[in-house]
Amino acid sequence: MTKTTGNQGRNQQPGALDNFKPLLVDVAVPLGAYYLLKDAFGMSTFAALAWSSVVPAARTVWSLVRERTANAFALLILTVNVVGLALSFVSGDPRLMLAKDGAVSSTIAVGILVSVALGRPMMTEGMKPFLVKGDAAKEAAWQRLVSGAAAGSADFRRKERAFSVVWGVALLVECAARVVGAYTVPVDTMVWLGGVLMVGVMVLTFVVSGAVAAAPMEQILADEMKKADDPVAPASLAAA
Q1: Count of C-beta atoms within a 10 Å radius of residue 27
Q2: Nearest Cα to 165, choosing from 105, 122, 103?
Q3: pLDDT in tens, 50-101
Q4: What is the C-alpha to C-alpha distance for residues 176 and 178, in angstroms, rounded to an integer?
Q5: pLDDT digits over 109-163, tens only?
């Protein structure tokens, strides 16, 4: 009996903390490292910013090596970080290094919006596990909906695109705010304010995209599963 419980525990979906760990690493660790390096070790503002940027970049590289897949988000973030760091070292400007974080947001935002225009919304990859939850019946229903074989397919795909559009627009807004802040707000203030801005935008976007797209998609998915479980429904519809 104990053994079965242990297996169930291992098969459980990751909790909220597990899903937010990358965000915590990308915000909390660099923020703490910056003030530690600057105030405790006496590094310059630029040096402290540069060294505090190493952890998020290393985490992205490690994710790529561990998963052995070319995740679009990871590649975009890594590329922009590397280019931004290189430009910052050439110029020696801490404000440019702060503005680099806005470039990450804008690059991802453009990538998301382009993917919507191409009919392959990029954010679907991250949203699907939350809706399907590893359930074979939900996975089958999802495939019918995205393939166009189900009655609710058109509405489902519209919501799928809307989810990515909300995230793309939100990240563009965050980019603009970060770049403006990088050149108008004191550097020490912008270091922590940038993290607060990022978390605030993420939370707000989760709420809005959930209400606009994810929740309706979950309902459409549930309806499709009910239709698949009811063998009488198709015959009734055909008779009508």
Answers
A1: 19
A2: 122
A3: 676 676 667 666 766 666 554 555 565 666 666 666 666 666 678 887 887 7
A4: 6
A5: 888 899 999 988 988 888 888 899 888 999 999 999 998 888 889 999 999 999 9
With a CB cutoff of 8 Å and minimum separation 6, the contacts of 37 are: 43, 47, 48, 51, 52
CB burial of residue 159 (10 Å; 0-12, 13-18, 19+): buried
**CA 161, CA 23: separation in Å to the nearest integer?**
24
Per-residue pLDDT, 69:
53
- Tell the residue number behind the tokens 């935002």, with chain if given: 109
Amino acid at 157: R
Q: What does the DSSP 8-state code read for residue 185?
A: S
Tokens of 99: 């503005």
